[in-house]
Amino acid sequence: MIKRLGRQPWVLATIGSLLAGYLKLVYHTNRFVVEPEGVHERTEADLPVIVAMWHGQHFMVPFAKPAHWPAKVMISRSADGEVNAIAASKFGLGLIRASGGRNARQIKKRGGMKGFIEALRALKDGYSIAMTADVPKGPSRKSGVGIVQLAKHSGRPILPVAVATSRSIELNSWDKASVNLPFGRGSIAVGEMIWVPGDTEEDALETYRLQVEDGLNAATRRAYELVGRSDG
Q1: For residue 180, what pLDDT is reported?
Q2: By the 8 A CB rule, do 133 and 143 touch?
Q3: Among 106, 156, 104, which residue's Cα sits nearest to residue 131?
Q4: How far apart are CA 180 and CA 25, in angstroms?
Q5: Percentages of the chain per state (helix, strand, coil), in multiples of 5
Q6: Concatenated DSSP letters for 111-139?
Q7: Is beta strand 168-170 parallel, antiparallel or unpaired with respect to 178-180?
Q8: Backbone phi, then psi, for 92, in 5-degree steps?
Q9: Residue partners of 208: CB distance under 8 A and separation at least 6
């Protein structure tokens, strides 16, 4: 009964709204810094971009986006994804309900191909796309190739982004989820853009996948360093 109750739309809507309110509290009660300085202004010329983030480190990423940048976020169709989708909509983000997979069966089940096409259209229409680079459910912090394929076919750059706070609770979950806490310091670290040429052969995509992985890991480490931590 508890499991069924947890999947009721009104329950998910309530949790999603509470999550959005809590994340706003965290953002407004932490003193945030952005590195590198002026990164938003320099990125303007290359919009729209594909914002890459890690699962479990994604909760505060909506606050890394300037309010005037139109954006959509790719979120899975799971119950947890529904909660995240409701919270994201409270921040004014458009939604693409899909996620990737490690094989064709997973991709089909999770709506990956439909989401990929929808993301291509959104980028063409000027929306930046935010998506997790690692594939549910693991391994964590290992980028899939889907985000690289999206960059190749859209011609838009990948922008690694990480957000950290000085106070958080680290969960023992597959994605090493970090629950950010209020009343501390926060940081937004942005990595170098990664461009994937449209004529890149399939067997060469691994090079760019590793660039995404390394770029995100570097941004994550730097975000934690900026708030005085070494456990990112």
Answers
A1: 97
A2: yes
A3: 156
A4: 10
A5: 45, 20, 35
A6: THHHHHHHHHHHHHTT-EEEEESBPTT-S
A7: antiparallel
A8: 80, 15
A9: 148, 151, 152, 194, 196, 200
Could you give the C-alpha distances from 207 to 203, 212, 217, in angstroms and in order?
9, 9, 16
Number of H helices, E strands in the chain: 8, 9
Tallying the residues shown for the chain, one arrives at: 232
| Residue given tokens 């989820």 in the structure block | 177
- Give CA torsion, residues 166, 170, 138, 10, to 10 deg: -100
What whole-number distance in Å separates Cα of residue 188 and Cα of residue 175? 19
Helix axes 112-124, 146-154, angle to 10 degrees: 30
Residue 146 to residue 127: CA distance in whole angstroms:
18
The CA distance from 204 to 197, in Å, is 11
Whole-angstrom distance, CA of residue 168 vs CA of residue 186: 11
Global confidence as pTM: 0.91
Q: How far apart are CA 213 and CA 185, in angstroms?
A: 26
Cis amide bond preceding 137, omega within 30: yes
Smallest Cα–Cα separation from 169: which of 26, 62, 17? 26
Residue bearing tokens 């480490």? 221
Residue 33's Cα: distance from chain center in Å?
19
Could you tell me the mean pLDDT of each successive run of 10 residues in the chain, 232 residues long? Answer: 60 92 98 97 97 94 95 89 92 89 64 89 98 86 94 98 96 90 98 97 95 97 96 76
Tokens at 213, concatenated:
């992985």
